[in-house]
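This entry is set out below.
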Amino acid sequence: MLLPANRFPGYLVPDRCFMKKMGIYEVYNKKAVQDKVSPSEYELIYNGTGEMYARCLSGIVIAAIIVLPSTFIIAYLYILFTEGKIDLQTYLDILLIPNSTFELMIMIPALFLMKIVSYNFISKYVLRIYRHNTKRQYVGVYINPILPWKNITCTFEKAIKLPDSINVIIPWHKEYYRLAGHKSIILRERFKRPVDYDRMLGLVKTLDE
């Protein structure tokens, strides 16, 4: 009796596998070139989700952190040169921001807290993972948390599953791994095939072993 295509060994595809959305790897070469990975040497085995949202989040927070202090400085210099003195109320009115000390004490730390939280997630979130065709080597691709329009890559031979986080309210609290010494977030259902996940963890031997 013939088995369905997704039941053959090596062709197991989870319900949420990214291959279903990508067609038959129609964007593989484009992604590889973008990540500075050779398509002839590496195979894309993992494709994360929400890349655009993560980049936008990081960009918005970074822009706010840059724009806010710059606005303070420009407004300060404007009042200093036009009025010859600094009046706090006028200063805050020009900035069009909450003009009570209490509100400012909440707004500024909250902004930096948002950056810390976004940095903590984005610096760990893996966009893509490539596996070398002939040797045990992987390339992980991350968003640069400082320059979100750029990527950061790392090479590793094996991923290590880390214990689940005690913060169960975090959706990815069970998805922590260590890649090249770096704590990372990897969504298991985003692998091309379940066997790729097992190989990355060293649960399945490769041909060169």
